[in-house]
Each structure stands twice: as C-alpha cells, then as structure tokens.
Amino acid sequence: MFAATGGNGTERRHRRTGGMMCFRQQGSPAWLFCLLLALCPGRYRGLSVRFPSEEPVYVIPGESLVLEARLEQGGGEQVATVTWEREAEGRSPGKVKVAELPGVAPDPRVSTEQQGATLRLSGFRPEDRGVYTLTVTSRAGAKSSAARTVREYEAIHHVSVGINVSHAVLQCGEAWGSEPRFSWLHEAGAVPPETGRVSPDGTRLHLAAPPCGHYTCIVSNKLGRSSATYSAEPCGRKGSGTAVGVAFLVILLICGGFLGFLLWRRHRKLGNRAERLQEPYEP
C-alpha cells in the first residue's frame, strides 16, 4: 500500500517535472530573449540616430554651422555609410548631398566629425539654409534618419507696442527677427513692481496701475536691438493739478480775508467819525 502510494507520488512528480522540463526546452529561448530585451533595451534596439533638439538652428552669415547628432548602435550593428543632405525649407525641388562618409564632401567648406555624426560648414551663406537630413545605414542594410532645420539669423525689425485697455496689458511684438529677447523700461528706468509685472517671455507688461508716462519695449538679439514706446498721460498731472487748485483756493481765501479786513477797518473809521460829529457842542 505504501509502495503503491509512493509509486503514484513519484509518477506524479515525474510527470510534473517532465512537463516543466518540456516547457523549458520549448519555451526558454523566446522567454530568455524577451527578458534580455526588457533588461537591456539599448543592446537590441538596433541602429538609431537623432538630434538633441528639434528647434531650428539660426546661423549668422559668415559664421560656421555645426550640426551634432547622436548615433546609437545596438545589437552589434556596424555603420556602413553616413550621408548628409540638404533640402529647401517648404519646397521639395530635391535633396542636395552635402557630405558622405566614406567619401569626400563636394563642398570644401564642409567637414564631418564623430564618425560622421557631426557636420561642420564654414562661411555660412543664405543658400545654405534648409532642412538637413542625416541618414545612417548599417552593414545589414538597416537605415535611420533624423532632420534639423537651419535658417539664416535675422536682425530685429519693426518693433511695436499696443495696449489692451480692458485687461490693462501692454503687448510688444516684432516682425521676423531671430531669437528675440524682450525687456521693458518705464520713464527710462526699470519697471518697478508697483507699476507692472513683465510676463515670463517678456512680450507683455501687466499694469498694476493706470498707465502714465512712457513705456518702452526693447527687443534685441545677436545682431542688434530696436525699440518702440507707448506714451500715456504724464505721471503726476492729476496730483499737480490738485495741488495748484488747493494753492489757488488758499490764496483766494487769504485775499478775501485781507479785503474783508480792509472793508471792516474802513467801516469802523467811518463809524467813529460819525459819532464825533453827532456829539453836542459845549462852549
């Protein structure tokens, strides 16, 4: 009885163990691959390239353009070719090859660094503007691309200041300058807290009191600065008018009092004279 029970138990354990062994033999490669992929995603992600920012790059004519990308190689991928191309922004007349690695750049102003992930172009010209695309191809044929827009650095133009009366806000704007920075002045000095508060981007001045005097918005960048001024009623006009009115009233009261005093004195003299004339004559 005991032996039979032990045999059945041994058989059940053998079946369970055999089942687990069968599962391990059949499912372990996929399970292990998924586990390693979860623990080390970068290793099996393959070849990829990207720029650290998607914001446009502004370049002053005559200076150097530098585009830096980040190249990531996973799963043992090896880079075969690196290609840089330029395309006019907003139009698609076709892409122009700027550089290729291995190979020689068609423009002597162009050079590459960091295994082709960095492009350097000296003596930037207006025709160098456009969308630059970096394409990396692995030996296995896999491709990864990233693009960055390059624009010419423009000076500040046509600064203007307007007022939103209902919200007591002064709004500053400019036409098309690159990377504009805004600042405000009130009566040729910094704006104090009791006068107003400048918005985080600098384009608006939220007034804390009724506008008075001159409000100047200054917009600047690497190529210079320009400004515009909004003029309101001069500060202190109401206060000075009140002071003048009070002073005039005081002077008027003084003059009226002095004139009344003169009239009273004259009336008293005339009264005394009349009394002397009415006195009886005594021989």
TrEMBL record:
SUPFAM superfamilies linked to this entry: Immunoglobulin (SSF48726)
Keyword Transmembrane helix carried by entry: yes
Gene3D superfamilies with a match to the protein in the record: Immunoglobulins
Record InterPro entries: CD2/SLAM_rcpt, Ig-like_dom, Ig-like_dom_sf, Ig-like_fold, Ig_sub
Location in or out of the cell: Membrane
Keyword match Transmembrane helix: yes
Name this polypeptide is given: Ig-like domain-containing protein
GO cellular component, one term: membrane
PROSITE patterns, A to Z: IG_LIKE
Bilayer-crossing regions: 243-264
Domain of life where this protein originates: Eukaryota
Residue span, Ig-like domain: 52-151
Organism, scientific name: Conger conger (Conger eel)
SMART domains named in the record: IG (SM00409)
Taxonomic classification: Eukaryota, Metazoa, Chordata, Craniata, Vertebrata
UniProt keyword terms in alphabetical order: Glycoprotein, Membrane, Signal, Transmembrane, Transmembrane helix
PANTHER family attached to this UniProt entry: SIGNALING LYMPHOCYTIC ACTIVATION MOLECULE, VASCULAR ENDOTHELIAL GROWTH FACTOR RECEPTOR 1
